[in-house]
Write a structure and sequence with these properties.
The protein has two domains: about 5-80, 3-Layer(aba) Sandwich (Glutaredoxin), CATH 3.40.30.10; about 90-215, Glutathione S-transferase Yfyf (Class Pi), Chain A, domain 2. Helices cover about 60% and strands about 10% of the residues. The protein has eleven helices and four strands, in the order E-H-E-H-E-E-H-H-H-H-H-H-H-H-H. The chain has helices spanning about 15-25, 45-50, 70-80, 90-115, 120-140, 155-160, 165-175, 175-180, 180-190, 195-200, 205-215, and strands at about 5-10, 30-35, 55-60, 65. A hairpin with a 2-residue loop joins strand 3 and strand 4. Helix 4 (about 90-115) runs antiparallel to helix 5 and helix 7 packs across helix 11. The longest helix has 26 residues, at about 90-115.
């Protein structure tokens, strides 16, 4: 497939965009990457995602697909390779994978944001909530290699980009995620052994600098 056939509108530090990059890498899809300025949205982004006006947007054959988890499912189906599927073929396991991806979407992003937007006692509450959520995910992981079983897939792709935040959150809230959730950190290290993951996740220090700059602008 020609690379111009597939275009990704994205922002380097987006955990949601990282999901799409991992899925495309897993499937070996060539694509054109178009970095977006979120403070000054491009005409292309506004045309391709007129509803939410957000990244990531995958454009395949001129047609846009929006919302990261939906894009990952689309990639799995559009580049259908029976030897490498991101969603399990078993209907129950597929439902489980979707449940956990949905849980991550609804809970983790906001919980992480609450840590960075608060101080003192309020931050302590936010930190406890965040660790509690990670422990729920650690419970789902159990003794398995990955969230839904022994192979890397859709639920792992939904979660692993958030590990990119952990260094920043640990610094901000004076905590150690490895001390609190050792099995989850072992899972992160396993995922990072995959080239699709290690090459798609930017340097956490770069994100820390971005976060500090953003807080300074907000007067924190």
């Amino acid at each position: 497939m020609e690379s111009c056939d597939v275009v990704l509108l994205d922002f380097w530090a987006s955990v949601f965009g990282i999901r799409v990059r991992i899925a495309l890498a897993e499937k070996g899809v060539n694509y054109e990457y178009k970095e977006q300025d979120l403070a000054n949205k491009s005409q292309l982004l506004l045309e391709m995602n007129p509803v939410h006006k957000k990244i990531p947007v995958l454009i395949h054959g001129g047609k846009p697909i929006c919302e990261s988890n939906i894009i990952v499912q689309y990639i799995d189906e559009a580049w259908n390779d029976k030897s490498l599927t991101l969603l399990p073929s078993d209907p129950y396991l597929k439902a489980q994978a979707r449940f956990w991806a949905d849980f991550i979407d609804k809970k983790l992003y906001d919980a992480g944001k609450r840590i960075s937007a608060s101080k003192g006692e309020e931050q302590e509450v936010a930190k406890k909530e965040f660790i509690d959520l990670l422990r729920v995910l650690e419970g789902q992981l159990g003794e398995k290699q990955y969230l839904i079983g022994e192979s890397f897939g859709y639920a792992d792709i939904a979660l692993i980009p958030f590990s990119f935040w952990f260094y920043t959150l640990e610094k901000m809230a004076n905590m150690s995620i490895e001390n609190e959730c050792p099995k989850l950190v072992a899972w992160i290290k396993r995922c990072m052994e995959r080239e699709s993951v290690s090459k798609s996740i930017p340097d956490p220090l770069k994100f820390y600098e971005l976060a500090m700059e953003s807080l300074k602008k907000q007067g924190h």
